[in-house]
Amino acid sequence: MNQKDKLKPKVSLNTLTKVRFEDGYEMLVSIFEKQRIDHSAGFQVNREAPLGNALLGHIVGEKIEYQVENKVHQVTILEIYDPLRNL
Known about the structure:
Chitinase A, domain 3
């Protein structure tokens, strides 16, 4: 990661992250410590789930691989919105 990338927002707990899956499907994902029922926050992912764990700490534009069972999947980070940072 270069110096400019260090200043970019990173996926973290409670951020909303727009991702594109390998089949082209795009969705908003929010990562939480514990599963919450709040459908306004996009698709909710526990930080310990393969996708949640893989996304944490990455920036817009990165392609991330994660494994579910014996299959490797890829997701691209399109946007990151941090409600606490954007007050």
